[in-house]
Amino acid sequence: MSKSKKPAAPLKQAVVDAAQVMRFDHWMRFYFLKEKDGKLVYEVPAEAVAEVQANHSHLEGLLDMVNERETDQERSTTAVCSFIAARLDGMVYKEGTISEVFDSPAFKIEMYLFSLWNQSHEAMLDENPVDFTEWERLYAEWRESSQVKEYEAKLVSSPAQRRSDSTQ
Q: Can you name the residues that pair with 89 across neighbouring β-strands?
């Protein structure tokens, strides 16, 4: 069985879906994770909850899992992975697809690019808080820029990426 360089259509869409969940989690942590009595607690205001319910109802379950709850790195990771596994793996996609997603070069590149976007836009996002719809629009706009597309192409064709593809 040969390995293609591009992910198969279902895997490609699963990468898109899993990456959106990761971005949503990051958006919640960025704006709504507060320190309270020495503990980190999600405090998502009603307006943000309503915007998620209206425009991103498929992500509402993750918000419900964490909102008004104490968290740390382990709990946050567990919540996100549990949500993705319960909502996508075996439900939307064939069982085992999400494991392939997390190991895929496409997902790793997507998360790396999101990290770059977040770092380069952190001050703007901090100064001008945005709802998740706008967060996604801003990211998509940046992602479609010619500079990012060129950089992504270099990442995809890098020797390290080719080694990673051959081990998939």
A: 93
pTM metric for this prediction: 0.87
Give tens-digit pLDDT for 128-167.
999 999 999 999 999 999 999 999 999 998 766 544 454 4
- CA atoms within a 13 Å half-sphere pointing along the CA-CB vector of 120: 11
Structure confidence by residue, pLDDT tens digits, 15-48: 999 999 999 999 999 999 999 999 999 999 999 9
SS3 letters across 100-153: HHHHCHHHHHHHHHHHHHHHHHHHHHHHCCCCHHHHHHHHHHHHCCHHHHHHHH
Residue with tokens 């977040």: 118
- Angle, CA of 87, 92 and 97, to the nearest 5°: 90
**Could you tell me the strand order of the sheet in which 33-36 lies?**
33-36, 39-42, 70-71
Query: For the chain, what are the domain ranges?
Result: 9-166
* 42 and 32 Cβ atoms separated by less than 8 Å: yes
